[in-house]
# Entry
Amino acid sequence: MSALGFIVRRIGAAILSLFAMSILVFLIIRLVPGDPVRTMLGFRATDENVARLQHELGLDQPMLSQYMSWIAGLFRGDLGQDIVSHAPLSELLLQRLPVTLELAGLSMTLAVLFGVPLGVLAASGGPWSKRLTEGFVVLGISIPDFWLGIMLVLVFSGILVVLPPTGYVPFAQSPLENLRYMALPVLTLAIGEAAYVLRTTRGAVINVMGRPFVTFLRAKGISPRRILFGHALRNAGPSIVTVVGIQVGVLLGGAIIVETLFALPGVGRLVVTGINQRNYPVVQVGVLAIATIFIVVSLITDLIVGWLDPRVADGMMQ
# Structure
């Protein structure tokens, strides 16, 4: 029953977070000083055009009525309309969301595949392996994504000429070309994330290896390799999963920059375009989509950690 209670409690917290985020996103544009409609229209901001656009966007209604109408539309799948192209935002989001999810998924997968083994090596290897992994952590955390992306383009597209610098091909159209176009953006995001995963894995494994039960296993004659991979890494799992879930939020923030840098047609680039056009319905929906992804990933992370370590679920239920 405690496990079921933990799941219900975490789902309830996620729903409350989504509700709070919807209010925050709704108020972002409306709390900005000045008239957002006049800002969007620019030189076309005549009194007639302002009144017309305010009516189309429902901005001439009371704030509560605007929010309730917007929420009702979200539940119906009606996210509004792009004021520039007049395309339904639900269609734009469905076109852009797979690109962002692919970029984030591939980047985090690559980060885990490299970060976890390197973290184990840093915790159990010799002095040289520790120095090399520490150097990678420092560089991976300190180098900005936009600078790293530019350097990768210069090397792999400008000098070696083996990967395309910008553009996108859908996976369904050509899987190989899709991976070629996604290689540099994914590598740009994955290097920094791998550094965080490495650091967390190293610290978690070192912490577990210092516990009394590891000393007991050594006294029983269990091989160091079996202790490391069969016991230490398994007990370090919750810490690793937690940091991976947290870093998804950082990765989604970096995806906005990377999608713009590599001309990927994702949600991040959609938000940047909306900001440049003063197209606030697009910005509103794009930010809400990214925030929703992060909240859902956080929920999944909490459930996985609770499954790996039931003490977490029991502690939250007390």
Observations:
- The CA atoms of residues 31 and 179 lie 41 Å apart.
- The chain has a mean pLDDT of 87.
- DSSP finds 13 helices and no strands in the chain.
- The domain at 96-278 is CATH 1.10.3720.10 (MetI-like fold).
